[in-house]
Design goal:
Length: 104
């Protein structure tokens, strides 16, 4: 059991694939820099963040996250600072695929 009373079985692990709008790869990265900085405040961590080296059909950025539990994830998703950037997000991100994974 962790210090906050959660267990590893409570953990929520996710993969996020992101595609930038045309000409907005740098904008996507800058937006993600801002919102990912909030994750630690919500009992979460960015396990890995990678960017594609060549534009193409695949995602421009790939992220792996771990949150202590679903409540921590929901708190992050509902963070007013993150929500305030929704217009910026819509301007730079064309597509997002988010799905559960098992991080090893």
């Amino acid at each position: 059991m962790e210090e906050d009373g959660t267990t590893m079985t409570d953990a929520v692990e996710l993969c996020c694939l992101l595609w930038a709008r045309e000409g907005e790869r740098a904008g996507l990265s800058e937006y993600e820099d801002h919102v990912l900085a909030l994750i630690g405040e919500h009992r979460g961590e960015v396990v890995r963040r990678a960017v594609s080296t060549e534009p193409g059909d695949g995602p421009d950025e790939i992220q792996l996250f771990r949150f202590a539990d679903d409540a921590a994830l929901q708190a992050y998703l509902g963070d007013p600072r993150r929500l305030a950037l929704a217009e910026e997000r819509d301007r730079v991100i064309a597509r997002t695929d988010l799905f559960p994974v098992a991080i090893r």
